[in-house]
Amino acid sequence: MSIAPAPAGTSTPLPVGRLVGVGAVIFFANAALLVLQLVAGRLLSPYIGSSLETWTSVIGVFLAGIALGNAFGGKLADRYPAPKTLAVLLAVGGLTALWMMLFPQLLGSTGLHKSLPLGPRILILAAALCLPAGFVLSLLTPLAIKLGLPDVGHTGRVAGVIFALSTLGCLIGNYVTGFYLIPILTINALVLAAAGGLFALAGVALAMGRAASAAPEGEKGESDSSVAGAPRINPHAFPSIAQAYLVVFLASFCGMTLELTATRMLAQQLGVSLFTWTGVIGVMLAGTALGNFTGGQLADGVNRPARGLNPRLALGWTLCGAAGSVVLALLVYAVLSRTEMYTDLDAITQVLAWTFSLFFLPMFLLGLVSPQVIRLAVPDVAHAGRVAGRVYAWSTAGAIVGTFATGYVLLSTLGMRNTLLLAGLILIATSMIVARVWENNSLLYLFSIVLGGVVGGFILGIRSANEEGLVARVESNYYTIKVTEVEGDEPIRKLTLDHLIHSSVKLFDPSYLYYEHEHIQMEFLRVARTATPEPKALVIGGGGYTFPRYAQELMPESKIDVVEIDPKVTEVAREHLGLQHYPNMRAIHMDGRQFVAERVPAGTYDLVIQDAVNDLSVPAHLMTKEYNDAVKAALKKDGVYLLTIIDSVGYGKLWKAAMATLCQSFPPENVVLLTAEGPAPGESLDAWDKSRRVLVIYASDKPFNFTALSNVVAAQLPSDVRLRKIGGALGFDMGFVELPGGGPVPYTARAMVAERAEYLRRLRVFTTVVPADRLKPYTDREPGVVLTDQFCPIDNLMAEVFRQRNK
Q1: What pTM was estimated for this model as a whole?
Q2: Residue 62 and residue 135: Cα distance in Å, rounded?
Q3: pLDDT digits (tens, 9 = 90+) for 202-223
Q4: Phi, psi of 538 (to 5 degrees)
């Protein structure tokens, strides 16, 4: 489709009052849309889990709805450009919000979702829940631009203001919901609040329509875009609308790639938490909003004939600058990582400092693009809604492709740095679409510098791959996975997932457990063996597979199912951490809740262990009463559930909520807090309480009996020291030593003394009860909240731990 040249006549004064009203409606409508996006995953997680497929389906469906809404909204805006249309759309948007509340209840009451295989179910349910709201609420943006636009001369400015306000609405919705609403409201209450807000905005839009009808003709702000005696054409307009679509598509692709990669980069330095996510989203949205607003001013300024400027060159400079800022972000990241410039700041300030330093400038420059493109693409006011809608639709389509490409392909194949460099390369190539770079010396100079930086970045990335002690580095769809080796008498390999050292293993000693809470897990498996000769255990969260490997070596008759959502974690454990293919161990790659709720027959397991933690990120849908009920159903009579969390007894809130929630599914007297990390010699109880550590919560229909557990451990331990001769198969020179009460134990000559000390250490019982009277002052001061699928503010419960960590 080609377009007529854009008129550039003298402009009518901007109708500020109407633009403010329309802008306010768009601001609050997009805030409501962001609320619905944030709760959509929580609404669906009981039925489709919380995996990469879930997240990308929800995001992708919302973006698809936004793209379709803008495409159709442009036609609607040109045909019915009235506040009444705005009111009708807002009211229908309120109905789609109510649908988002009713649909999960329908699934829960009928069980219709269980008839669908999990793979297609994720996309089908995400589309049914999210597409209506995303589509209807995105019809508003082109209409708002049309209503606020008096003539073509103000196209960039009006489009920039509307885009900026919609982005700011998303920003406010993100922060208010994440920090204030989720901790106090249920999910359904949030949806009802969004629906109520949309209905209220419909009333405001109707009032605007009445005011506009009552205004005198001269104050309505309508004018013909063609002014007598003014130039009729814009010689720099895009010759084809398809060119405009391609530019915004590629720019948005790079913007979404940058946003998804940013979270992975910050996870290396600051971990994963509510603060890192909101920091990234907030700075990205703030940069985009300011860029949209500034871009509108720039677009109208450079398109004025009196200026004698080429607006296509301005857009080329913008794209080259955005590409350069991406390369600069990598350099800044390297400098900040090495200098530790922000380490003395408090936790929240660190997040904002890192995010602003790295990503504000690229997102600001990318935010400049859409208003400039729309200004070059709009031929007249009569087609303003249609052109703006289609441009925004193609921009959203680029974001959709960027989401799926980055989440599924780019990060896991290219890695973080090369993914960013690819985004820079795309942006600098896009600049050649909009401007003849080679005809402008200054622009060509910038182009050459940025291109050299991109190429140099790829080369340096290859050379820097050999990190000291690095055994393997793998980018998966979920984590940056690193295996490093620490030299010593017996080399130790550490598995790091993003920011957290998840496991530490000795290749030839499966009994070595770095995290002592895994000894608690083994002790309960020993207790289970007293009731059945072949105890069956389920482990949610594989990581380095240290406990399953330990259990299979010392108790090969036990049957262990390990549910690990990331198949690459399992691959790394097999290739680099000594995990073998044990006949009685299954590795299952899917969401833990979906496995427990839909794949496990009732009364299957003697022991269920949940160890799915990653730094400060805890899967919310694995902490609720509904999930605990499913776990209880999966247990045999008197089976045991062990929930692992990382928290502080003194100032933490998660352990209190977890215990309060478990008391809804198990007898309260049978919910007990355990630890393997008692106070160190000379450490006060108060200091112990205030430190962050691994805690294990015991829950069962059977009362916890410490004496019985101690007796079982003491009786079984000596006969279990029968580690297999696995070193020989790996080409490692092994010997044997007889230990009292046990069979031959492999050892290296240099580790003989250490092995004897390790055997003596094993005689200790690791399970330690944190007394109830020790916990009572903390629970009396602030009782734990009960977590449900409707109310589970996990990130907020971990917020204080995040604040305290860097003090």
Answers
A1: 0.80
A2: 8
A3: 998 888 777 656 555 444 444 4
A4: -115, 130
